[in-house]
Design a protein that fits this description.
Order of helices and strands: EEEEHHHHHHH
Largest sheet: 2 strands, antiparallel
Oligomer: single chain
Number of strands: 4
Distance between the termini: 36 Å
Shape: globular
Strand order of the largest sheet: 1-2
């Protein structure tokens, strides 16, 4: 098994590695780079190659939120429970009652993150945004709401669900249209 060391962690047999830099000729962005489907570069990518984008989707998700806020369909400052009533945090009900899109998107809910041991290193045990709400509602509280940054991947599933409830398929269409 091949190993790729990323930020002190080891990813086994990564599906691809992309090295790229954006170019902006004539005012139109173009991505220029080199991609390999194996770390040693022995297999070149084709149109069917799937690349991991990892946490880059968080930027796309918050951009989709910003578009919905700008269009008056959402709010950065209203509690997420307006759109997702099931977000009833068991260990501190006030977090569920008060957490906003800003809190959730900036990792400042105070909810303890879901460990890789439970979710899997690549979150292979995670089954979608509706499950994210159930998981978030049962996470232990590590800090008070808005008191500290505490990285929590699972809560972006909650944000994704809020987006899809406000406007179905908008995450995908906004990513294609605006980003």
């Amino acid at each position: 098994s091949k190993e790729l060391h990323i930020g002190g962690r080891i990813a086994f047999d990564p599906p691809s590695v992309t090295l790229a830099q954006p170019l902006v000729p004539s005012g139109r962005p173009v991505l220029h780079g080199q991609e390999f489907t194996t770390v040693d570069g022995s297999i070149k990518p084709d149109l069917d190659t799937v690349s991991l984008v990892a946490s880059c989707t968080k930027a796309f998700t918050t951009a989709a939120c910003a578009i919905l806020v700008d269009e008056g369909e959402s709010s950065w400052t209203e509690p997420v429970r307006i759109w997702i009533p099931a977000l009833k945090t068991k260990h501190d009900p006030e977090i569920g009652n008060r957490a906003t899109l800003v809190d959730v998107s900036s990792h400042r809910t105070g909810l303890d993150p879901l460990e890789h041991l439970v979710a899997g290193f690549l979150e292979e045990f995670f089954h979608g945004d509706h499950e994210a709400v159930s998981i978030a509602a049962n996470l232990p509280v590590a800090h008070d709401l808005r008191s500290r940054f505490l990285y929590n991947n699972n809560l972006f599933g909650v944000v994704g669900l809020a987006i899809s409830l406000l406007r179905p398929n908008f995450w995908h269409t906004s990513t294609r249209a605006y980003l």
